[in-house]
Design goal:
The complex is a heterotetramer, with 2 copies of chain A (315 residues) and 2 copies of chain B (281 residues). Chain A has 315 residues and is an alpha/beta fold. Chain A has one domain: TIM Barrel. In chain A, 31% of the residues lie in helices and 18% in strands. In chain A, strand 7, helix 2 and strand 8 form a beta-alpha-beta unit. With 281 residues, chain B is an alpha/beta fold. Chain B has 6 helices and 16 strands. Chain B is globular, with a radius of gyration of 18 Å. The chains are: A alpha/beta (315), B alpha/beta (281). At the A-C interface, strand 11, strand 13, helix 6 and helix 7 of A face strand 11, strand 13, helix 6 and helix 7 of C. The complex binds flavin-adenine dinucleotide (2 copies), flavin mononucleotide (FMN) (2 copies) and FE2/S2 (inorganic) cluster (2 copies). One flavin mononucleotide (FMN) binds next to strand 6 of chain C.
């Protein structure tokens, strides 16, 4: 049974990657699970400098969802490389760093540090965080800015560059193509949906920051749609993200065209989620007489579009 | 070591009002849990509500390999726990968090509990009994309805001092009143330990500060993961060696903090909001 | 206790309106509840001619949500006016018609029929249906087209014109302003989020149409955010829609600035939802010492923005 | 009149496998329900799964003011029903839909059931008994495990003919085989009534067509509302007076349709897909 996939020249031993901001820096789970069993780990978003993040409350539950406005609290890329990386690099998994910036220059600067650090396999470019006042969504919502940030990162590193797209756009295909043209090796789709929850007693937002990013099962249909649209729009691989908490959820993205997926909020709900999905995926493949996970990727038969064989048109 | 465990419910006792005593089996949690630690727990695998919930470990029985939670039913997560039937399982991560410290020899542990904040002090009292330490538990609420555990706190060596704001049981007034009386009455060296609503914790912190006593408070923020990754549970803390306060995870560096190091909310954030939110802004 | 609100010159006896496509033409509920208790009823979307709608399956559940691609099956505006309107007009509630078109001209034509029909209080312009190949979202996603459609409808009727905006846009404020400038009297926010659910066994979309529109509790945080953004962007009233199934849900929108709300998917889950919310709203107002629902509208204190008093700035 | 009702569970019987008999109290449903009608029902008010679920009314007891559902546990909605404890309530809308027609005098009602599709025929058999009509129930499944109601179908005047594809009980083969045998054996005038998987319904429709018999089939589409407003449950039907087929709500114009009027799926839609979807494309 082959569960390994290759994306942007990186070999993931399985298609399940821990999503940024939902798995800390990895070390937090050392005692809870075997990190080497993961396909990959994306670090919490990192700037050049440490960041306090937003005031609290920072998270609140919504129906089948989680609304957060952490605001990218973090230790900064240098502390990560110095203190954390040596500790996690010994786990045999693909270590990706999620990079952030207030400016295009900062993105490039953080990317440059990553480029020089042994053990960082690739760079996920967070141009889609809704919870900061500068950078983030301001870059990811505009194809020109997306192009600029990705090109700037591209210029300073030979490591795979994986922009993470925002769902808070009218047409994700436009952003996906902008990122591809700027030299991206793969895409991550999607970050959180911008949401607002109101505390009717205080008549203030439930989150101190105001709005927040919606994640979890609630957003899965939107995420699958966007990952599918992005995958159709570009030639580079698209990593699917959004509301995955079972093998069936993961398969929706794989079938829609994503060679790998990231698991976010489900880590909070069940720290054993990767193992569970991995086992269920293997069982599913077996039951379907398949011995390679790649055989399901991009096999969606969409009505009116050419089927996976490239010829059949579905009714 | 915290780890993900599937824990069967072995016993379930409904107390008066919306309170349950739920006893689960798990050898390691029963053996390792310390007073002040908690579990992140969820009944079954239903998708709603999405997240697990934090509950203090109230008691353990290493021989029977069980631990007990004291659960107040306030919403869907606690309700689902209260609906578990013996034999059914919960998803559980724990024991988590930093426990209360052991009181230094010769020091009396003054435990101050408000509402469901009493939970960790049952285990604390057990620990005191085992170590031969001295303690006293001040247990407060608005009315006697808020003290459903009153009859379940016997069997330890820790005297119990109830207090209710309406006087329906024990001391008439806030729980800090009998605490201060006790301190005034010439008690020996003491250390304060508090768990309960934020306003109470802040009051205890002020008592400690005024009297130059050490105090530890167990904070109660919204927790997403219990393990230091969601950064949802942070509270503002400034340790003695630090030049500025910063956000620390209550789930890993807490929930028990040195009261003197907690940046209590300033007056710019409205009181109503803080109390509802139940934690530091 | 005053629960009545005035929007675009129409008096709603309470702020709870049945949303288009989730309440049929109203008649379906005649036996189940007292239609006169509703603040208003919006009809299923209507074109000039009857429409078959999309093939089945047309609906599927997602976590806390419903994904649909009905495709605007309907009897056409003339059959509605002739056969249905006389039957429902006798219920004392505000009757709104949700109008659709494949072309700008068709919108205007349907609006003209509405304008001439006794008993139709106002026109909701559906420029946001994701489940049709022409019209719908194609109009609602583009500020210029939004302006054109709304202006064309405006020209042929003196009845209130209420464009219904799509959430599948980058910035709803832009669309809201375009609709306002074109002469809209109020706005409805939001229609469904475009989503895709994959059947992993057949490897086809679960819905025969392919993508669908996501509604229900899952989308509420996104809907509240967008209704709030729209309300801040325009001077005309904004009717909040999306995931409402309790008084507290409705209050989130009211507090965020909507004088009324529409209830959609919740009608399927609980046909008594209006009565339940109405009772709970009244109780809530009483408990908070208020005797007019208007007193809560737009009272959200958003961090960094002027508070409802217009002077206070929240921390 | 259908209306929204809160119905308490009064009895609950677990059958073998994933099947439950659930009896609820409601005087009007118990009095008004006709065979083929259904309820939209949901255990409690939990938000997940969001929608109510359609279940045929299997039996009624107007005296006791109760009605019974035969529930196969296949997902969250049915599971939640199976977990209701007596005394707990469900949200319920009904009775809904068009029932099976009464067989004309002198006509034998041949009831063809597959799997949980047997549910309406228990009530149908009661109606036959009351009206003095004649009937015969063909009850099929893959194995005997699919016929958990076998022992519960006595007490009516309708003979029971089981069939299983593996021969583990009754006739060895598909349920249409004993049906055709019966028709071949020179039975008198008959009318077919079928409820079960779509492939079986289609087979029954073909049998009826070949023999010039009338047939009514109860379809099983996904239903959102049960009341004609979501338009999610539509099936393609062409009535005799119509020039083209159109989508009709199974919840209000069905679930029982004249088999000859149903536009059965053509071959352009894959069989696997249809069977999974369980209804007309
Ligand atoms: C370390 C720790 C230990 C705890 N120990 C216990 C215990 O021993 N016994 C017990 O009954 N409860 C305890 N709690 C509180 C318990 O976690 C919450 O009551 C529970 O999460 C509520 O979940 P729910 O789904 O039932 O209700 P929800 O609907 O989630 O919550 C009901 C209301 O309480 C608010 N709320 C929820 N969680 C918190 C929170 N952590 N702080 C402040 N407000 C909150 C919500 O905003 C909502 O208004 C503890 C909390 C923490 C952080
Ligand atoms: C008029 C009518 C009468 C019915 N009577 C009975 C009855 O008496 N007893 C009984 O056990 N069941 C009956 N059903 C079927 C029952 O409604 C479904 O089994 C139930 O809705 C499943 O809900 P769930 O949440 O348990 O599972 P889900 O998770 O919703 O469904 C499990 C699987 O079944 C599929 N599915 C769900 N509903 C349907 C459907 N209506 N048609 C085809 N596939 C579906 C889903 O796609 C999924 O794959 C009836 C259905 C209809 C329309
Ligand atoms: C608490 C929290 C923090 C997050 N932090 C980051 C982050 O630092 N960088 C980033 O790119 N995405 C971040 N995300 C987004 C997730 O990586 C993921 O894209 C999103 O949650 C959707 O996936 P899910 O539904 O599986 O959670 C965060 C999400 C959550 C819930
Ligand atoms: C089955 C279904 C059919 C709908 N049909 C229409 C329609 O005809 N016209 C329209 O403007 N909106 C239509 N909508 C959108 C709803 O009116 C509403 O905007 C949306 O469902 C969000 O609200 P909710 O979450 O309360 O359902 C439909 C929604 C559903 C679920
Ligand atoms: S609860 Fe998630 S970091 Fe503390
Ligand atoms: S189930 Fe909604 S129209 Fe039939």
């Amino acid at each position: 049974m082959n569960l390994a996939v290759e994306i942007a020249g990186l070999r993931f031993k399985n298609p399940l990657i821990a999503a940024s901001g939902t798995f800390g820096y990895g070390v937090e789970y050392e005692d809870v699970l075997d990190l080497s069993r993961l396909g990959g780990i994306v670090s919490k978003g990192l700037y050049m400098e440490p960041r306090d993040g937003n005031p609290t409350p920072r998270i609140t539950e919504t129906p089948s969802g989680l609304l957060n406005a952490i605001g990218l609290q973090g230790i900064g890329i240098r502390a990560f490389v110095r203190d954390v990386l040596p500790r996690i690099a010994r786990y045999d998994t693909v270590h990706l760093v999620n990079i952030c910036g207030d400016t295009v220059e900062e993105y490039a600067e953080v990317a440059r540090v990553c480029d020089g650090a042994e053990g960082i396999a690739g760079i996920e470019v967070n141009i889609s965080c809704p919870n900061v006042k500068k950078g983030g969504l301001a870059f990811g919502g505009d194809p020109r800015m997306t192009h600029e940030v990705v090109a700037a990162v591209r210029k300073v590193t030979r490591r795979p560059v994986i922009p993470k797209l925002s769902p808070n756009v009218a047409d994700i295909a436009v952003l996906a193509r902008a990122a591809e043209e700027a030299g991206a090796d793969a895409l991550s789709c999607i970050n959180t949906l911008l949401g607002l929850a109101v505390d009717v007693e205080t008549r203030r937002p439930k989150l101190a920051f105001g709005t927040g990013g919606l994640s979890g099962p609630a957003i899965r249909p939107v995420a699958v749609r966007m990952a599918w649209q992005a995958a159709r729009a570009v030639k580079i691989p698209v990593i699917g993200i959004g509301g995955i908490s079972s093998a069936s959820d993961a398969l929706e993205f794989l079938i829609a065209g994503c060679p790998a997926v990231q698991i976010g909020t489900a880590n909070f709900v069940d720290p054993g989620v990767h193992e569970r999905i991995l086992a269920d995926l293997a069982t599913w493949l077996e039951q379907h007489g398949l011995d390679d996970i790649g055989a399901v990727v991009g096999t969606l038969e969409y009505p009116g579009l050419p089927g996976p064989c490239g010829t059949e048109v579905c009714p | 070591m915290p780890a993900n465990r599937i824990v069967p419910l072995v016993a379930r006792e409904g107390l008066r009002g919306p309170y349950w005593l739920l006893t689960f089996r798990h050898p390691e949690i029963a053996r390792d849990a310390r007073a002040g630690q908690f579990v992140m727990i969820k009944a079954g695998t239903s998708a709603e509500p999405p997240l697990r919930r934090p509950f203090s470990i109230m008691a353990t029985d290493p021989g029977a390999e069980t631990f007990t939670l004291f659960v107040k039913e306030v919403g869907p997560g606690s309700r689902a726990l209260g609906r578990l039937a013996p034999g059914e399982v919960a998803q559980c991560l724990g024991p988590l968090g930093r426990p209360f410290s052991t009181p230094p020899a010769g020091t009396e542990a003054l435990l101050v509990a408000g509402g469901y904040g009493v939970a960790p002090f049952r285990l604390f009292a057990e620990e005191l009994k085992r170590s031969g330490g001295r303690g006293r538990l001040f247990y407060g609420g608005r009315t006697s309805d808020d003290l459903p555990l009153l009859e379940h706190l016997g069997g330890t060596s820790t005297p119990l001092v109830p207090a209710t704001e309406d006087g329906s049981v024990g001391h008439h007034g806030q729980v800090t009143a009998p605490l201060e009386e006790w301190l005034d009455s010439g008690a020996g060296p003491a250390r304060l330990y508090a768990c309960g609503p934020e306003a109470m914790l802040h009051a205890v912190a002020r008592v400690a500060e005024a009297r130059g006593l050490a105090a530890e408070v167990s904070l109660d923020p919204w927790m997403g993961c219990g393990i230091g990754t969601c950064l949802g549970c942070v509270v503002k803390v400034q340790n003695t060696d630090e030049t500025r306060a910063s956000y620390r995870c209550a789930c890993t560096e807490g929930p028990v903090f040195d009261a003197a190091r907690v940046r209590w909310p300033g007056e710019e954030v409205s009181r109503a909001r803080r109390e509802r939110a139940g934690f530091m802004a």
